[in-house]
């Protein structure tokens, strides 16, 4: 009877912590002893788990969260919570942002309350030497005590490193390893529990490796960006998937401008990043991956909520113009879709475009298109678009093109992306001087009347209805939220045919 009463009290404590975090986003009112008791029970739950766990679809996969509790709850409001939906989190719950302890405690409570529906993997920031210096230690010391931080770290040491979904999708935080020769390399792997064990062999690569962003890259290369582990090329991805007979590798660890990004000539690696506007300055979107029972994948993508006070005046002006046109483009403002970016040139005979309506000399200026009014709802979740694409043949649109991205979870993380500024300037079309008398030109025809404003699509929470795919140059609008879906043909249709997008 006493044991049953104690267990009932513990379940009540976990439920109260979940309610407090979901409603108030803090743990005030709970003592250190209560939190330590939850962490001790979490340790007992995680310790028997192997380094690689097996899961069944359907499920939702989260990438890096990094203490962004409000954004994590925005995702929770868009999907069904456990036990209605299984969660697989790929690590990096802590550091960088100020609610790491609340995010981790919420995930631990979810796992204790729904042990069969929530699985947490270990990221590189769940290692003591990382979160000791990147914010989590100081947060625990400031809000609670160093003793609480040590209890968290003991739980981190027992987190699995990888997960296998329906024997077809392999998930981890970082990447693959040259030391993985077969399934036994993962199934018999021992969980690293010391800093030294985290820095060598397969555990290091599962938490730190990256796919190369060079489309022509091949083989294994030392990861100079991380100063640890490897970068692996397209040929390595193909050979690894053939070796283990899997269709897709899902990982996190890197900031992606659109929240998710496919890599490899067969798109067999997908990076998922779930922290929008990373650290408050990157301006990136964030995504979670939904995997159906038939292994159909789709994405829910949130736009960043930017703090304009932290941005430079030039960046604020650029975002304002992009928002007015309801487009977020990697190209400079003034660049027209389908044409290369133009380089400003002050020399005689070169035209310098200043806006989207700038045209060559001597040509009339077309009328401006009225700005679209973004849809409104409680969380500013905006347009959804479905694109039916097989996993093995996902065509890369402009929103998925690999760029010079930052380090995601590692030191010096950030968002990059270089623009091509080597295009020759556009010469003016003014005719050369002539000795013949100049005849007055006929007045230009009156411009066409302005088109009617485009009505925004009806907002919906279901991403199953297919609609025309967006153009390669359009992305989510900065400053609001949106959902972008990519749906595959399922595990029985992993052929190499390309679907229309």
UniProtKB/TrEMBL annotation:
It catalyses: O-phospho-L-threonyl-[protein] + H2O = L-threonyl-[protein] + phosphate. Residues 364-373, 443-454 have a biased composition (Pro residues). It holds the Pfam family Metallophos. Residues 319-328 have a biased composition (Basic and acidic residues). Residues 342-360 have a biased composition (Polar residues). Keywords: Hydrolase. One of its GO terms (cellular component) is cytoplasm. Residues 405-416 have a biased composition (Gly residues). One of its GO terms (molecular function) is protein serine/threonine phosphatase activity. Residues 121-126 form the Serine/threonine specific protein phosphatases domain. It is an enzyme of class 3 (hydrolase). Residues 319-501 are annotated as: Disordered. Its EC number is 3.1.3.16. The keyword Hydrolase applies. Gene3D superfamilies: 3.60.21.10. It comes from the Eukaryota. Residues 455-493 have a biased composition (Low complexity). InterPro entries: Calcineurin-like_PHP, Metallo-depent_PP-like, PP1_catalytic_subunit, Ser/Thr-sp_prot-phosphatase. Belongs to the PPP phosphatase family. This is Serine/threonine-protein phosphatase. It comes from Bursaphelenchus xylophilus.
